[in-house]
């Protein structure tokens, strides 16, 4: 075997300016977080709206939300990404198209595509969790809310959603983690996030194992931190006496 | 939009789909087999085995599949080179298959574990009481019941895996998506081919998950 | 000669002691009924006999073989003791026939024909030959429990353990199961039965054991147990008055 193990590789110069390989990882991680957080905020908002729609009476709104979920759940993420990056921009109005393709630097246009893609993809999943959470509540809750004179909107805002969101924190956490992992597809349209930087390091330095080990460790630590954060949130919002909360 | 070139391109798209399905079937078989072994290890009394299985599952669940695919593409040939001492051409298909099996096993493990735990303790007691060994009790009594119960979940995971096989694009394997991309570029209809590919994935995934839902309803009765 | 010998058995779940120094025996051909309030440890005790529940102290000898000895081949030992469970525990994915034959073939190594013949013989004895091709889910609770007894008998056991065999049954099905057990007792089967059915105990038991809080409080001949109530411990009398009030 002629593999040269070198765990100091991360502190060595990349040969480009004064950068060391670690700088690449730091910048990659920065992009990963920027993509995931932005997409998550949109996914959470859109997914909540869709989730509520699925539980509303009537036919049209639930059907729209259902169609949305089925569409975004049954097309591979990568196909969706290519759509947002290669196809959709060509159908934008002329000025927007020029802005997206020529004025923006490539990293920004890739960033926008991947954020839109992940946000809409994840919204379908969030929608299902929100719907499940609302449907898990006792039926008496919405009846009681309407009985005290709340409108449908108030019923959701003050009674159903505050309870539903508390129930679904664990599955939402795993969607939150997924969006970080899924953001790695951005590497396939040239955004230099964590995976792309790892690959580049592996190819530049030939220290494949070190590069991927560090990437793994970063994802692992990221995962653990997010899980800890979410369980803190869960504890913080827990209602005494409800669903295993402190009495 | 002009979809005129799709029909003449169907043979080459079908070649891509064959690769996708081949990869899927092998990955599912390998993933469920390894996942079952991991689940049994995870539930065993040995702290070493269950600790290993737990670490394995946590590890693969916290990293992106795309990272595993990319890493294995680079690493599997090197590792085999170390083991065998000579250069072996592995090929992207094999390295992707290994990546999928190892990655999916972590997810299948959790499904299988939940399935086994859903079988009442009385069943294993009854199997032991008639003199069965651990392996007989698992093979003849517990696993057949558990697999029946978890069939819908296993199928759902398989549909997700079907979509995830498109990630082999990253290492240049010509699966269905990549075939559509390449063909679309040649034909100058890249948008149309991409939309067509998306529609095919949609029809298959949606159709399959509708069937799974129906199966789930039937099993629930 | 003792078929089952329980010697100073104690068992803990963590810090909680579930069995305290239990000692008794069941002789060949004897029928022993174990009763006591729920949580008294009677089900745990009967499950220690075929090592479904491990114990930390003492030993149990079944037909000369130590259950506690780590070198004992437990599957082989269990194959010789029949057990009937509260919730029947037929294998729901297998037909009645397969439930009766699977262990005979896989554990005892009998041929398919032999296993089939034996299985059908006992299925006939519990009066369910017509149900051979059904699945457990298609039978009533009483029928399932009779099949479970037939499944155990088909292994030619040297003794039978019954763990509350009638307590999960609807009242109208209790008797069909008890009738089978009475018949078995009359034929001389060695039986250890955890049950609240005092009528059954009066009819066929040789001895009655009363347990409370993990310990054996009473262990005496049936005639003494039921005939001389005043000599019973306070707790046994309370228990009996509750049970017999029904």
From TrEMBL, chain A:
Limits of the ABC transmembrane type-1 domain: 29-230
Major localisation: membrane
PROSITE patterns: ABC_TM1
Compartments, as annotated in UniProt: Cell inner membrane; Cell membrane
CDD domains assigned to the protein according to its UniProt record, in alphabetical order: TM_PBP2
GO annotation, biological process: amino acid transport
Gene Ontology molecular function terms on file: transmembrane transporter activity
Family, similarity comment: Belongs to the binding-protein-dependent transport system permease family. HisMQ subfamily.
Protein name in UniProt: L-glutamate ABC transporter membrane protein /L-aspartate ABC transporter membrane protein
TrEMBL record, chain B:
Keywords, in A-Z order: Amino-acid transport, Cell membrane, Membrane, Transmembrane, Transmembrane helix, Transport
Subunit structure: The complex is composed of two ATP-binding proteins (GltL), two transmembrane proteins (GltJ and GltK) and a solute-binding protein (GltI).
Membrane topology of this protein: Multi-pass membrane protein
Protein source organism: Vogesella indigofera
Cited NCBIfam families: HEQRo_perm_3TM (TIGR01726)
PANTHER family: GLUTAMATE_ASPARTATE IMPORT PERMEASE PROTEIN GLTK (PTHR30614:SF1), MEMBRANE COMPONENT OF AMINO ACID ABC TRANSPORTER (PTHR30614)
Entries under InterPro entries matching the protein: AA_ABC_transptr_permease_3TM (IPR010065), ArtM/GltK/GlnP/TcyL/YhdX-like (IPR043429), MetI-like (IPR000515), MetI-like_sf (IPR035906)
Protein name stated in the entry: Glutamate/aspartate import permease protein GltK
UniProtKB/TrEMBL annotation, chain C:
Family: Belongs to the ABC transporter superfamily.
GO cellular component: plasma membrane
Gene3D superfamilies: P-loop containing nucleotide triphosphate hydrolases
Membrane-topology annotation of the record: Peripheral membrane protein
Protein name as annotated: L-glutamate ABC transporter ATP-binding protein /L-aspartate ABC transporter ATP-binding protein
Native organism taxonomy: Bacteria, Pseudomonadati, Pseudomonadota, Betaproteobacteria, Neisseriales
Residue ranges of domain ABC transporter in the record: 4-238
Compartments (UniProt record): Cell membrane
Annotated keywords: Amino-acid transport, ATP-binding, Cell membrane, Membrane, Nucleotide-binding, Transport
GO molecular function: ABC-type amino acid transporter activity; ATP binding; ATP hydrolysis activity
